[in-house]
Amino acid sequence: MILLDPAAHPVIGHRGNRAHAPENTLEALQEAVALGVDAVEFDVQVTADGHLVLMHDLTLDRTTDGRGALAPRTLAELRELSASARFRRFHDGADTWRGRTARIPTFDEVVESLPNTLPLIIELKTPAATAALEVAIARHGLQDRVIVAGFEAASTLPMRGGRVALGASTPDVARLLLPALLRRPVARPWFQAFCIPPVYRGIPVPIGGLVRGTRAHGVVTHIWTVNDERQAERLWAKGVNGMISDDPARILALRDRVFGGAATK
After folding, report:
1. Set 56, 91, 217, 222: catalytic member
2. Is 91 marked active-site?
3. Do 193 and 214 contact (CB within 8 A), yes or no?
């Protein structure tokens, strides 16, 4: 899978084509695919009646016309909401979705609507969704084309040692910061990928050191959220693999210039 290839430079649609369409919707993900991304990234949570749905925030307020927490809502209740009500295009703030409505999709709908070979980065927003995601991955036969990540260690703990590639949790990254800064070798980690930001809570993350310290163990590094060409070039120069971008068309065009258009050499 390209997301685990240490020689690859994939461009990954962050919550789809988020700069131009409502995040974590079928429409945004399909737009990213149409642009030619190598993979898409999206976030999952679980409803009160056990359905996996795509949503980043634990609350509905920022991206929908709903209010309050997602977890107590049923799928039927979420279906009544607009997932595009608050969307504005990133670069100019234009309300390009006026008169159109996108809905909160289920995980099953997303998987069934995307190409059946497309790699996926799935972000668990809460450990409550882990069991349902494990079942869904097995049901759809996705084990060989996904990376599952989560900020909380508890989110991916039940999946460790299985067939699914996993991303480092925030505590895992924190434990590696000092060795990365001191250029010390690290023991083989349990995870297969970093899916991390270049800056965390205002503090620069030593990306180059993390790459150097874990590359020998086959760990790949994908960075979010990269929308600036100069930043992408600097990260690639540090040995980063993937760029997780809100505006993947821009980063795809850059890769065409830097690497001749191919995600792999």
Report:
1. 56
2. no
3. no
Residue 260 vs residues 6, 221, 256: alpha-carbon distances, Å: 18, 21, 5
37, 111, 119, 135 from 115: Cα distances, Å: 12, 8, 9, 20
- Structure token digits, residue 185: 């070798």
Pairing of strands 203-204, 199-200: antiparallel
**Quick one: average pLDDT of 147-175?**
94
pLDDT, tens digit, 9 for 90 and up, residues 50-78 = 999 999 999 999 999 999 999 999 999 99
The overall average pLDDT reported for the chain is 94
**Contact indicator for 133, 148 with CB cutoff of 8 Å:** yes
Residue with token string 């000092």:
178
- Which residue carries 């895992």 as its tokens? 172
Q: Which residues have a Cβ under 8 Å from the Cβ of 182 and sit 6 or more positions away?
A: none
Question: What is the structure's pLDDT at 265?
Answer: 56
SS3 of 251, please?
helix
Q: What percent of the chain has pLDDT over 90?
A: 82
- Tokens 């084509």 belong to residue: 17
DSSP-derived letter for residue 106 is B
CA 186 to mean position of chain CA atoms: 25
Catalytic residue among 14, 51, 91, 140: 14
Beta strand 242-245 with 52-54 is: unpaired
Q: Is 9 a catalytic residue?
A: no
DSSP assignment letter at 89? -
Residues 6+ apart with CB under 8 A from 190: 160, 166, 172
What confidence category does residue 99 fall into, taking pLDDT thresholds of 50, 70 and 90?
A: confident
Q: Which residue carries 């979420």 as its tokens?
A: 78
Closest to 170 (Cα-Cα) out of 151, 155, 188: 151
